[in-house]
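Q: What structure does this chain adopt?
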Amino acid sequence: MRHNKKFNHLSRTASHRAAMLSNMACSLIKHKRITTTLAKAKALKKYVEPLITRSKQDTTNSRRVVFRYLQDKYAVTELFQEISEKVANRPGGYTRIIKTGFRPSDGADMCFIELVDYDENMAKTTKKATRTRRSRKSSSTAAAATTADAPATEAAAEAPAAEAAAESATEAPKAE
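A:
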């Protein structure tokens, strides 16, 4: 009987599951957001949140405990330097799971899991530039205006540079 054993084994052996969660935790720490299945994301959340809590106290013992789980010194360094500073005043809930739909091949629930304090950076990188509809007449006149202004601004930018070069050339012989 498996009474009171509410642990998702993810259809893997214990060693395979530990290695997979360790690799996923390292990827989450390095990239701040990863895409995976919902079951793996929920297991990863339970795996990585105690490690982030442990990283708030930067002691040798806590670094060793976290390294025992992650086995990646670059991930441990980033966790203790960058992430622990961002979550210093947060009492918990360091990760967020957002469902993205179903995988086409097998219909698995897909989601991405991200670190909560890094969502503003991800939102900026994932937004696409929206295009507005404009008439061709206004866009062609705007393009003509920018091409007409371009030679004038280049000449204006070159003039001060030429004057500065001339002054430095005249000052060099005076110094000797």
